[in-house]
Amino acid sequence: MGSRLQFCLFLCLAISPFAHSQGAQDASSQNVVKSRTYLVVLDVAVTDKNDHPVPGLTKDDFTVSEDKESQNIASFEEHGLQNASAGATPETAQTIILVDEMNTQYTDLAYARYCMRKFLQKNEGQLSQSTALMALTNKGLVVLHQPTRDGNALWSALDHHRPDLPWRLQGGVYGASERINISLGALEQVAVAFADSPVRRSIVWISPGFPILSDTRLDQVSQTKLFLAIRKLSLDLLHSRLTIYTVDPRGLIATSGSVTAQTFYTQSEYFSNNPKLDFKDMVLEQFSSETGGKSFWGRNDVDDEVARSMNEEANYYTLTYYPANQSLDGKYRNISVKMNRPDLKARTRAGYFPVPDTPLPKDELVDQFELALKSPLLYTGIPLKATATVLPDQPHSVQVVVRANRRMLTWIRSANGDLRCEFSAATAAFFKDQEPQDPQSYAQLATIPAAKIPTYPEMPVVLRLTLPIDPKVTRLRFVVLDTASGKMGTTDLAAPFTSPKN
Question: What does CATH list as the number for 12-33+368-494?
């Protein structure tokens, strides 16, 4: 391979659309993405007076309102451990345990790791649901282990990970600003990677919290930029169905410098009130309340707190509604879910921004691909599968086949009855400890002739290409971006690549 990074145009496309005329009709109506904010999806955790999850509720037990206006519940579904067994049903929920090394004192981090060992090795290492393990380091987000129910495997990954000293904690005002950027950037990475995924995810963030923003003395320009960044993050958290739980590893503190949440503006208060208000602090715990999660602090049983967070996230209800106010004015709207039983309490996200989906500007495609290629996470908006085979007559080349779930792509019927899907694709080769450079993007247009729609089988979209490959390449990453909806999917192939069978 001539350079350490090669982006390749997918030249050969084998498009496999819909099985019959009804399927084609579905494709033209259901698969065309409309504004995400027309249908609001709420994941609701319901607990009793002892904070135990409550199963067996019905739609009639819930009342939903938006800006104090009652809403009709369009759909209702219960999810819980009692309704699922490993491998019996599709996975509907995942947990991400994120150990915050950057914002945590080293002694507190050591105690958190001790508690994590107790939790992960409990019940012979069998976890109740699929769990991923990540760390927030001085350099950013690191994936230590992909989702698994094997707690022993997760502990082994954490045990073999050697954290750096949290030197950014000593950085004063500049260090606090850097920690805010890195922390919010990590949260943004997770939200973007899991946008449009059918799987609900929760982050159990083990951290004492972000720096106090007022201590950084942000000027007006910086405040405005941070305001816009948090607004975008709020939208991304909505699209990814991400709930945040926080666990403070400091345990009981004799003299706490913590300030109660009432001292701070929540996102909903800040976005709903007079925009001329001075910028106030928003700490990590506020993201918990805004996304329907919960914060655990002032206790020494970190392992039990993590377990409670996961138990709550494993038992929940999904409600949807079409807002009575269909205006996409971009103004923040407050959501309230109340229980019709006084002994129960519901938690869900606090609100959202009703904004229309717009096609991604072409000049942003390069940035989107660069982020997707660099991210330690796999994007799940478009499920992808890939295989790579070494060519027998070309030992320094591989033949790659990438399959995309066509139902997650946007198909639009043209005036002549054809179905069209516009997307972009790219691939990058990685060497050990190297990052992609000089990103490029390529537009693709797939067309299904109207006459062939009724006879096409139910198959994924297939992309085929041949790549020159350097023997030192350790990984290939593939990216597909749906231009109309902004959905993205990525998948990795690790070396060595397979050889054809004789």
Answer: 2.60.40.150
